[in-house]
Amino acid sequence: MRPPESFVGQPIRSLQTMLRVIAENDPTHVRLVPDGIYGPETTRAVSVFQRNHGLPVTGVTNQATWEAVVAVYEPALVAQTEAQELAIVLNPQQVIRKGERNPNLYLAQGMLLVLHETYKSVGHPSMSGILDEPTADSLASFQRLSGLPMTGNLDKHTWKHLALQFPLAATAKTIPD
Predict the structure, then answer these.
(1) Which helix (H) or strand (E) element contains residue 16?
(2) Dihedral sign, CA of 112, 126, 177, 118?
(3) For a Cys staple, 125 with which of 85, 108, 109, 161, CB 3.0–4.6 Å?
């Protein structure tokens, strides 16, 4: 779907686009091809929307229908788009060492846990926000598998490899050792 800015001055196409996104998340709605024409398919899609949302079923988009469509569209659009990326900021030479507490460790520990559960060759980390012994061991085993120096510390190179391997592990089936 094109971004809403491309439909400025095109209210019918905007309506159709919103109804299409809603239908992609909820099969009880009519899937509609945005063509900018308020024809029979648009009337049917609006009528189904109105029925599903307790509005008077007219097939006409009045203000109440428009506002209801917008209210349902916004969360439906979020559900269809990719999750917002999270950029972790480590200073250029920053290394999180054993015994240190850092909020980024919760994320690293979560990724290590998924890697552990998926591949079994990565040690089981704790979930403490502290680079404790279980987390250091988990990092070291991950570093060994990634061809990195086995320091047990969290640096930018280790983070980069975690960020690359995590999506694969999160979508993979458990792989035996």
Answers:
(1) helix 11-25
(2) negative
(3) 109
